[in-house]
Amino acid sequence: MDRRLFLGGLGAAAAALALPACSRTDAGATAPVTTPAAAAPTSWEVRHRYGTTAVTGPPQRVVTLGQTDHDAAIALGFVPVAVGGFLGGSYTPFRPWNEAGRTGPPPPVLDMQEIAFEKVAALAPDLILAVMSGVTKEDYAKLSQIAPTVAQPVDAEDWAVPYRQHTEHIGEALGKPDLARTLVDELDAAFAGARAANPQLAGRTAVCAEVFGGQYAVLGTSAPRTQFLADVGMTPHAALTALAGKGYNAPLSPEKIDLLDQVDVVVWSTDVAEEKKVFADPLVKTLQTTQQGRYVLAPNGGNDDLLYSMDWGSVLSNRWAIDQALPRIVRAADGDPATDANA
């Protein structure tokens, strides 16, 4: 099951105060009267997978079509006029970690998988971001006729751009490269602090497994959830993550489910309505990782933002995951069956 199928199955140091829709906020001290500030550039170019885009700034009407692009934009002080997401179901692109960066009603949500180009055009954007996305060359050609469009970085996988590259790429597009690097440095420091506070995780192996549409899968090293486990000090299980190669994930056949007992911690994801069914499956129920409580459940749906905090892997969601997901991972890894990581 690839990333697009997974997406189809799913229905703060830097967060700046928001102005009205498509406004931006500028952080920093006022320059002394005797030392005029250097003029900000009024145009710049951004290289991406489909070419080079010229941006005239600062942008005032930004549309984000990548799943987490609005997180980076909000962290950089720009509130989009519309954001990409899934239409229907309980999915929302507005989560605890990005709500503080905006005021007023949430912007409209556009389908980020089946792009309605006429709806994008009706918003009269002056910049379109499609970075954490799966936009094709054909999509890009249509979007770039509406407004300057910045697509995935040249060497990035669809839907799986690491937070460092993601934040800096969007920072470049928005004319805020220095602030973007600062945000990345601060998050790097937060991860370093998390590793220092939890040295017991060093050397422990982990893997992310999921069940959507009745299909078992394991996530590869490019998946943001796997990256999060590595960033907090754990070691992604080499043999299991290798099944996905450079892809987001790979099917795990029933005959190979017992490979999950080779790891110290499994992070499971499935639809919230399917939780009991998955853990009643003898293949999962009899695993040592299950019986010994060495797993964390990150469901899709319900009131738990754990899945998206790790799966988005953004400059904002990662901070929430450090605070909320990491303690559960630590409990799952403590070797004590009496400790309930999912309480």
Compact overview of the structure:
This is Iron complex transport system substrate-binding protein. This protein has 343 residues and is an alpha/beta fold. It contains 14 helices and 13 strands.
Structural commentary:
By secondary structure, the chain is α/β, with parallel strands linked by helices. It folds into 2 domains: 42-184, Rossmann fold (3-Layer(aba) Sandwich); 198-332, Nitrogenase molybdenum iron protein domain (Rossmann fold, 3-Layer(aba) Sandwich). Helices cover 34% and strands 16% of the residues. It has helices at residues 3-9, 69-75, 96-99, 117-122, 137-146, 163-173, 177-197, 224-231, 238-241, 275-280, 282-285, 288-291, 306-312, 317-332, and strands spanning 43-48, 51-56, 62-64, 82-85, 109-111, 127-129, 149-150, 205-212, 215-219, 235-236, 249-251, 265-270, 295-297. Strands 8, 9, 10, 11, 12 and 13 form a 6-stranded mixed β-sheet that branches. A 5-stranded parallel β-sheet has the order 5-4-3-6-7. Helix 13 (306-312) packs across helix 14 (317-332). It is globular, with a radius of gyration of 21 Å. Keywords: Signal, Transport. Belongs to the bacterial solute-binding protein 8 family. It holds the Pfam family Peripla_BP_2. InterPro entries: ABC_transptr_periplasmic_BD, Bact_iron-sidero_bind, TAT_signal. Residues 61-333 form the Fe/B12 periplasmic-binding domain.
